[in-house]
Amino acid sequence: MKKILLTSLMGFMAWGVQAQEDLSQYVDPMIGTAKMGHTYPGATVPFGSVQLSPDTDTIPYEVNGRYNPEVYRYCAGYQYDDVTIVGFSHTHFSGTGHSDLGDFLMMPTSGPLQLNPGTETDPDSGYRSRFSHDRENASPAYYQVELDDYGINAELTATTRVGVHRYTFSEGEDAHVILDLMSGIYNYDDKNVWTFMRVENDTLVTGFRETTGWARTRKVFFALSFDKPIAKYGNQKYDDKQAYRGFWGRFNESENFPEIAGRKIRAYFDFDLEDGDELIAKLAISPVSTEGAIKNMQEETPGWDFDAIHQAGVDSWNKELNKVQVSTIRDTDKVNFYTAMYHAFLGPTVYGDVDGKYRGLDMNIHEAEGFTNYTSFSLWDTYRALHPLFNVLQPARNRDMVKSMLAHFDQSVHPMLPIWSHYANENWCMIGYHSASVIADAVVKGTVTSDLDHALNASVTTAKTAYFDGIGAYMEKGYVPEDVSGASVSKTLEYAYDDWAIAQMATKIGREEIAQEFADRAGNYKNVFDHQSGFMRPKLKNGAWKQGFDPLDTHGQGFIEGNAWNYSLYVPHAPKEMIGMMGGDTRFVEHLDSLFSMDLPDRYFANTEDISREGIIGNYVHGNEPSHHVVYLYNWTDQAWKSQDKIRMILRAMYQTGADGLGGNDDFGQMSAWYLFSALGFYPVAPGSVDYALGSPLVKEATINLENGNTFTVEAQNQSEENVYVSKVLLNGEVLSEPFIQHADIIKGGKLTFIMKRRPNKKIFSKD
Question: Staple 51 to which of 92, 233, 467, 475, CB 3.0 to 4.6 Å?
């Protein structure tokens, strides 16, 4: 169809070395849309506020007052195996294990008007349509599908704050566009708090939607404009049982009445079209006002040239994708690499209008001065590799993300840095205070160089909020007791790591008293290690171990989304000390070897929603984040070579082409960031350190075009499918004696050369 593969010969990139290639052709947004990848295929631009994508069902969050586990499949609104499309909504999360959003669903239809979405088993009962993947296409900044029931070709593109639709009606008679202000992801009866809509004139509609849910107070404004006049319009209210409704009953609000308000509204707009006519619609969003939405539309999409808007989106993606240019063993490796870059650059998302205004955590309107404000911080996932990736490829954006976190802190009544925040809300999801890790990593690596005392003080204050998630007991006892706060071992281990990160930041800026205090706290991982069993395990407030311990079980054992086998290896800031505690190199390597070769029966993760068979190798759970550093731990032993074949195995097993190509939730880019680092041959085991652990690169060659104008090249000599081991590594021609490089080695530019072999060099990095 219309997948544009125009090579953007727009001169040279800012670094003046590499011409911009059309790397968008290697991106497949369909990867991860099946099973539990939880990605969406729709149109968006890098870090865009709008994610205009199809939703394929209306699965409710609850049934008869109880959580409906089927809704989990629809975190991104789209499931590849579905056969109907309900419509196209403008906001989506990518790869998350919980959800919200799905705002302002639009659906073009023809024939008799229907305002009910219907069901997958009976699509004719509503406005949804059957579709086929044979007549569906997705590429960066573009999505297209044929709506079979209506003979309508729907095309979508986007700018940062505007979603643009182009509908081609094979039959123009009785053409409708439905605007469903009730629809949403993880929906339930009372999720809509209020909706309001005004028909300003015959081409412009404005309004807002307020919802409660994961974000309990979320308000989004919109402006919707059509390139053809509305012939007539109307709406239907649902569940309109207010005790007081004023004197609005004197009007017929359901037909051609220019303003409507209520909890649950579906509107429609009719157009006089001929067969084959196109209708273009633009919907801009704003966290501030309808005036802000109109300004966003005027600034970003002043005209109606769909193809030009689309091409601008492709160009924006190519600019970002060209930050790394690779040659690979297989063509499919390029698809996986650039799709991973695409997924890594979907979020966090811009949150604010073109004039810098945004709604803050205090629900007041603020203006971002000197930075772009961002939202949707999935920090339990993304502190591990995504934000460290940004310190290499997107330092200016990551700097603004840190400023956004500090603005959140300043607006917080607690006050605390973000835990898992989106759309001016803290939803308190997951554990740890990993904003501190993100900030510390950016400070230590030189991405953030100003307002450092504020950054440190915000991190310290957050880490001392005693009433949050067992922190009071953690500070008192040196561990979180399981009978005080669940998932206690995971919390203790992650708090200890975050404390270490704070200590690194304090050292960097010369705050030695704080550095010592948090370095001491960073040793708290020792307090939940059971020397007898050899595992981290839950401890009670009286100091006794919790009984009934099973190190294989992922449920009820003191861990969140993991088991003791995986989580006992979570001491990324002190791997040598952990290895010694677990018996030394020989015993530790045997333990690590067995993790990849043993079996984890299904019953051990049956009650854990975020762990599925597709993401498991042996008992190593790659499909969930706490294990992402584990394979690199061999580098702290005398058998560093053992990481190499396993890294290549994970790259091949967990990342493939096709809709079901991801071995777990992409988790807002964390899974993809692991792939990118590992394919390049190095990984940030402990963000907050300047060190990267070396592995086994998948690329043949990669050129990283850095924001400062330098280039860093990775070369894998003798690279092949069989040559997974590294016999020697050179940095700028000098042989490395340790399996690590530093951040400065990358940022100042240079060349990292791996010499690949079929058999391992068991003395690599040996000091003999």
Answer: 92
Q: Where are the alpha helices (DSSP H) in 470-627?
A: 471-477, 488-508, 512-521, 564-567, 575-581, 585-597
Q: Can you spell out the DSSP letters for 251-288? A: S-TTBS-SEEEESSEEEEEEE---TT-EEEEEEEEESS
Task: Round to whole Å and give the CA distance between 225 and 42.
Answer: 20
| Interacting residues of 145 by C-beta distance below 8 A, sequence separation 6+ | 54, 85, 131, 135, 136, 137, 153, 154
* The pLDDT of residue 243: 84
CA pair distance 257, 365, nearest whole angstrom: 31
pLDDT of residue 2 exceeding 90:
no
The count of residues in the chain is 768
Q: What is the pLDDT of residue 12?
A: 35
The pLDDT, as a whole number, for residue 242 is 80
Q: How far apart are CA 60 and CA 69, in angstroms?
A: 10
CA 654 vs CA 623, 691, 721: distances in Å: 8, 25, 16
Q: How far apart are CA 673 and CA 337, in angstroms?
A: 10
What pLDDT is stored for residue 127 in this prediction?
98
Mean pLDDT of 550-579: 96
Residues forming a β-bridge with 154 = 145, 167
Distance separating alpha carbons of residues 141 and 423, to the nearest angstrom? 23
Q: What share of the chain is helix, strand, coil (3-state, %, to 5)?
A: 30, 25, 45
Tokens 């860093």 belong to which residue?
Answer: 712
> What residues does 698 pair with on adjacent strands?
none
Residue 158 has phi, psi (to 5 degrees) of: -160, 155
Alpha-carbon dihedral of residues 38, 44, 48, 53, nearest 10 degrees? -50
Give the model confidence (pLDDT) of 268-295 as tens digits. Answer: 999 999 999 999 999 999 999 999 999 9
Report pLDDT for 18.
56
Instruction: Give the phi and the psi of residue 54 in degrees, each rounded to 5.
Output: -75, 145
Integer-rounded Cα Rg, in Å, for the chain is: 26
Nearest residue to 54 via CA among 1, 27, 90:
90
Q: Residue 768: which pLDDT band, with cuts at 50, 70 and 90?
A: low
Ranges 70-84, 85-99, 238-252, 648-662: which has the least confidence: 238-252
Strands (E), 148-211: 152-158, 162-169, 175-180, 192-199, 204-211
Distances 606 to 347, 465, 555, 628 between C-alpha atoms, Å:
30, 34, 9, 21
Q: What is the DSSP string of 514-537?
A: HHHHHHHHGGGGGGGEETTTTEE-
Greater confidence (242 vs 148) lies with 148
Backbone angles phi, psi at 523, to 5 degrees: -85, 5
Q: Would the pLDDT of 490 be above 70?
A: yes
- Cα 503-506-510 angle, rounded to 5 deg: 140
The CB density around residue 83, as the number of other CB atoms within 10 Å, is: 14
Assign 199 to helix, strand or coil.
strand
Tell me what percent of the residues of the chain surpass a pLDDT of 70: 97
When pLDDT is cut at 50, 70 and 90, the band that residue 767 belongs to is low
Residue 382: DSSP 8-state: H
Residues contacting 143, CB < 8 A, separation 6+: 29, 41, 42, 43, 52, 53, 54, 137, 155, 156, 157
- Residue keyed to tokens 């086998």: 565
Q: Are strands 425-426 and 420-422 parallel, antiparallel or unpaired?
A: antiparallel
C-alpha span between 23 and 2 (Å, rounded) = 16
Confidence of residue 318 (pLDDT cuts 50, 70, 90): very high
pLDDT, mean over the chain: 95
> Percent of the chain scored above 90 by pLDDT?
93
Phi, psi (deg, nearest 5) at residue 198:
-130, 135
Q: What is the DSSP string of 306-350?
A: HHHHHHHHHHHHHHHHTTEEEEESSHHHHHHHHHHHHHHTS-SEE
